Amino acid sequence: MKAITYRGYGGPDVLEYGDVPEPKLGPDSVLVRVAAASVNPVDWKIQAGYLDGVLDVVFPVIPGWDVAGVVEQVGVGVTEFAPGDEVMGYVREDMVRRGTFAEYVAAPVRTLARKPAALDFAQAAGLPLAGLTAYQALTRALEVKPGETVLVHAAAGGVGSLAVQIAVALGARVIGTASERNHDFLRGLGAEPVVYGDGLADRVRALAPEGVDAVLDLIGGEALQLSPALLAEGGRLASIADGSVLALGGRYVFVRPDTADLTALAELQDGDRVTVEVAATFPLEQTAEAHRLNAAGHTRGKIVVIP
Q1: Residue 195: what are its φ and ψ, rounded to 5°?
Q2: Cβ burial, residue 281 (10 Å; 0-12/13-18/19+)
Q3: Which of 23, 30, 32, 64 is 20 to 30 A off residue 221, Cα-Cα?
Q4: Residues 6+ apart with CB under 8 A from 99
């Protein structure tokens, strides 16, 4: 099969396109014919070696954790899926080795859910990691309740745009930070936008004089550091981007595969309460360009690779 691989740490130039053996199918996995895979910052961060102290990496690596596709074959222990089923998944295993930027991936069933009928494959590929990150942060780390006010930093990005929609679906009022060019986009998702940068705290206080009930930080740095002062009494803080949130009394969130959570997201999709913005698509052989665009950090929504 065709796949993207890299044989050592580095930038986009280490990515190679070519033939690799099809993956072996374990008893609790299904073979998925990949229709689309989306790019996440963690992909190029692993590739650059930034997570070498955290994750075991076995070279050569096929990168990618997000996938949407069709089940071709099931392992002997699998009862959840059958050939022909359309699925999506956050295919993270214990070692970084065989990812989703390929024509086929052997995915453990614990990483998969059925693809929402409301989404095409490109949109579905953009949902798992970003959607699970937002969902788990909002429902578990922050325990957002109806009627509360939530501040989302970097609200127009891949995780942020989903976090806005999920928070609105949970019954919350949402304030989202973003550049001014993305304000109409955020209003369309149900958020009240504010420009980030100097004076951000004052702009948020103008919208929520009593403070916000929860802050979801997706960018770290200065935005995170000013967040505790924006919380109402008893307010909660979580970050997916900056471990210093712990010193501020908040929670650090690292997403995990979870079929039940992914199914809950699928139900929101099929209920037209959440959608996925696809910023750009690339053919598999141009995955390096997709990584460069993602690393630049200025896209709205998800970047998707099509085998």
Answers
A1: -75, 135
A2: middle
A3: 64
A4: 37, 43, 61, 62, 63, 64, 65, 91, 105
DSSP structure string for 192-233: EEEE-STTHHHHHHHH-TT-EEEEEESS-THHHHHGGGGEEE
Distance separating alpha carbons of residues 65 and 85, to the nearest angstrom: 19
Q: Are strands 251-252 and 278-283 parallel, antiparallel or unpaired?
A: unpaired
Answer whether 46's CB lies under 8 Å from 55's CB: yes
pLDDT at position 208:
98
User: What is the DSSP code (8-state) at residue 40?
Assistant: -
| Residue 274: band (very low, low, confident or very high) from pLDDT cuts 50, 70, 90 | confident
pLDDT band of 289, cuts 50, 70, 90? very high
∠ CA 147-267-264, nearest 5°, is 70
In whole angstroms, what is the distance from residue 124 CA to residue 70 CA? 12
- What's the residue count for the chain? 307
Q: Which element (helix H / strand E) includes 96?
A: strand 95-98
Would you say 215 and 150 are in contact if contact means Cβ atoms under 8 Å apart? yes
Q: Work out the average pLDDT over 204-216.
A: 98
pTM for the complete prediction? Answer: 0.94
